[in-house]
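hey so i finaly got around to running the thing on USP domain-containing protein from Pseudocohnilembus persalinus. pasting the sequence first so u can double check i didnt mess up the copy paste, my clipboard has been acting weird all day
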Amino acid sequence: MKNINSPPVKKSKTNMGITGLTNIGNTCFMNSALQCLFNLPEFNDYFLQDKYVKDLRSNNKEIAKQYAKLLKNIRGSGSSNSYYSRGENTQDLKRAIEKVAPIFSGYGQQDSQEFLRCLIDGLHEDLNRIVRKPPYRELQADLSKHDIKHISHDWFNYYKSIDDSVIQDFFRGQLSNKVTCNKCGYESLAFDNFLDISLSFSGRATLLHNVSLEQLIQVFLNKEDQIEEYYCSKYDNSFDDAIYDLVGIVNHSGSLSGGHYTSECMNPYDHRWYRFNDSHVSEVNMDQTQYDTSGSPSPYILFYVKRNLHKN
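ok and heres what it spat out for the 3d tokens, dont ask me to read them lol
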């Protein structure tokens, strides 16, 4: 597993969408997270090609509709070989999110990770393919009868019967938790789903060269005595079997009570990195970019994509 600057992504004739987002009042936390999502091509094809319409719940909260609308506006801005400082307006999407999460009402500074979680939760609820959820059942995890991957799939399929959406397709992973009784040696195994992981990132580093995703996850696993292993069950692999590429970074500068968010994203069509500072967009050479994670600005959210995702 390693990070590389330009993963092999097939060039598309679709507009590359290198366009800023207007700051409508301390909304840099929103703009920076959205730009990283907008540069995930397989995920966004689902919205650009209107595949989401067939999954849209009748009682949806308009979040998926407004996300698709904004994404299409981004892709319709400019030409396929240029980018503009004119920003697209995010007001309609923000209003849809405010209805389900009043904390984002108004124009106070908010946390970008909290917004991202709220957005993907809202997209999931709007697009959940499960209309009637099955009754609860107690899942068994007997390591004496089945190996850990067999049990992992059993739990994964059960949770998929409850929650199944494009969000789950692209973002869901599993953590296996094993507890061993000190007296009798009995092992209890359970699995928890996750959409993101909070990793510890400290010290001065060049993200693209000195730090790997595997190293960050290993630090996370070492801190959790009960965690046995990490799985991405959709692709039947532990992280040791796959390569993940860093494709987006949300940066924060300032203090916990305030500050400013920007993002750097690798465009999947021209393989170049761009810095998004609200409506302003500029190309950036990531080979020469240093990040001081103890200073300001510092990387706050990292977006990784599994190599050759479209082949699975």
